[in-house]
Design brief:
Layout (H helix, E strand, L loop, with lengths): L20 H19 L6 H8 L3 H5 L5 H25 L5 H16 L8 H9 L5 H26 L9 H22 L2 H15 L1 E2 L5 E2 L1
Antiparallel strand pairs: 1-2
Helix pairs in contact: 1-4, 4-5, 4-7, 5-7, 5-8, 5-9, 6-7, 7-8, 8-9
């Protein structure tokens, strides 16, 4: 699923890239996302991307009419990649606690793969664009809200299945887990040390009462 809708436990994988011009556009956007992850979204422009790709500005203008259109498309591409690497693996896990633990593990693996050189693209973009009103900020904020709602939904399901203590608050738990993921992101980018992610995993497992690194069976 892409940024156009709210993720749910019934979400399905996005369609495969189309042939021809759409495939070229996909490749351009993947390069744009990697460039923005290093230089920032605000520095991303048709000119800077053209220079990075060795393309003409006119060639890129055929795909994107303006800097803002390029930025919006880049954010959407980063969201598509995040969906494939984090959301879909979590949705494939057993409902409830399995998905709750699974979304954290998928996020840590997303960082471990160095999908983007700056760590979590959306976390960086939120900090950069958070004080700049406009469509780009709104799209990033929508993504963040959707991801938070997804985690909360997993927590609510786990609570309904009696996999969490009766007094657990899904909103608070989602906030805590999101905070752990963001802290792991920041420290992993700074130190590039797998021990950071191992520590984050231990904290998540302790908080949720699960054991193991990949099985997430209740402790």
């Amino acid at each position: 699923m892409t940024m156009s809708g709210v993720w749910s436990q019934d979400s399905r994988r996005p369609p495969a890239p189309r042939a021809g011009g759409e495939r070229t556009r996909d490749a351009i956007l993947r390069a744009a996302a990697s460039l923005a992850a290093v230089d920032g979204l605000d520095a991303l422009s048709i000119g800077s991307l053209a220079a990075s790709l060795g393309m003409s500005k006119s060639g890129l203008h055929a795909h994107f009419g303006s800097k803002q259109e390029l930025q919006l498309a880049t954010v959407a591409e980063a969201a598509r990649i995040f969906d494939a690497e984090v959301v879909q693996p979590a949705l494939a896990a057993p409902a409830g606690l399995g998905q709750l633990a699974g979304v954290c593990e998928a996020f840590f693996e997303h960082l471990e793969r160095h999908t983007f050189p700056g760590g979590c693209f959306m976390a960086d973009a939120a900090l950069e664009m958070g004080t700049r009103p406009g469509p780009v900020k709104d799209l990033i904020a929508s993504f963040q809200s959707q991801f938070g709602d997804l985690i909360r939904g997993f927590a609510a399901t786990a609570l309904a299945r009696n996999e969490l203590s009766a007094g657990e608050d899904p909103d608070r738990l989602a906030f805590e887990l999101n905070g752990i993921m963001l802290a792991a992101d920041t420290n992993f980018v700074l130190h590039d040390d797998p021990a950071v992610l191992d520590l984050a995993r231990q904290i998540v497992h302790q908080r949720l009462g699960v054991s193991g690194v990949s099985g997430f069976s209740p402790a």
